[in-house]
Amino acid sequence: MRRLGPNFTLGPIDLSIGARQIVCLVGHSGCGKSTLLRLIAGIERPDEGIVSLNGTELAGPDAFVEPERRNIGFVFQDYALFPHLTVQQNIEFGLRGRPRGEAQARVAMLLALTKLTAMADRYPHMLSGGEQQRAALARALAPEPSILLMDEPFSNLDRDLRERVRTDTIALLRATHTTAVIVTHEPEEALSIGDQIVLMRSGRIVQSGAGRDLHDRPADRYAAEFFSTFNRVPGVCRGGELHTALGTFPCPPALADGSQALAFIRPQAVCPSFDGLTGSVLSRSFRGEIEQFELDVEGLEAPLVMRTTQRLDPQGGTLSFRIDPQAVLVFPLDERG
């Protein structure tokens, strides 16, 4: 646990990270992701609890291991390369004390893996954003850390470069069998790269697990809305089903008869149909692979959003649709979202 002023406390948190796993800490700004990373690194001390690595206590009531003695690598958001050193010298920095031949071999291998061999003699200001990120990664990996921490490592890159660098980075982590913890606030980024996703909110872990589990089986409304967009349709639970203006959907067993709840329906779960419900088209937006429609449906206060890959030509300004019941989530109306 770490107390940061009168209004925010990180924890209690119970988190285990397996060897060679890539773990993504995700959540909105200010939820405690970076603070947790700094506690692991030793940049901050916990007020309560224990941080351990491979059975060795790094921080706790009886011990505190200084950051430089933890064998933990850290890639900062701004990369923090030494501006007066070349790429090769930056990578060599963490290998001081090793035999020269061994250090040179390690540097050469990392330059090759990060595709920076031709830029070994360049200084950081001579590199692009993606090249700086790869140089920072190579420097962090040089001493073969037990775990690598990365704080928003792709946030300074433009969209196209970001995706390419991210793919190359994950491939490198896999190739070097590196255990890594990566902080991001991008849901899609976390889902695409993490073996384990840890969703945080207000200093606590909301849900942890595989990306598919968090996306398809969110623990609560916050988890659901963090990873996806939904239509929220109110209803009443009766006989184990939620009765709404769009039909009935299974209710969780914990919801009692007569309780109010919300059906969370993803736009892609609203499917075109020849004999389903109907709605008047309020707007349509072509987005390349998909087209989005906003429909005015009787009984609903808000427009129903539908996204489809089909090329539709609404006749008379109306569309028929059905709801895929397997893609509907139900949460209590009074649950904090």
Automatic annotation (TrEMBL):
Pfam families: ABC_tran. Keywords: ATP-binding, Cell inner membrane, Cell membrane, Ion transport, Iron, Iron transport, Membrane, Nucleotide-binding, Translocase, Transport. Residues 1-227 form the ABC transporter domain. PROSITE patterns: ABC_TRANSPORTER_1 (PS00211), ABC_TRANSPORTER_2 (PS50893). Transmembrane segments: none annotated. InterPro entries: AAA+_ATPase, ABC_SmlMolc_Importer, ABC_transporter-like_ATP-bd, ABC_transporter-like_CS, ABC_transpr_FbpC, Mo/tungstate-bd_C_term_dom, P-loop_NTPase. GO terms for molecular function: ATP binding. Belongs to the ABC transporter superfamily. This is ABC transporter ATP-binding protein. The lineage of its organism: Bacteria, Pseudomonadati, Pseudomonadota, Alphaproteobacteria, Hyphomicrobiales.
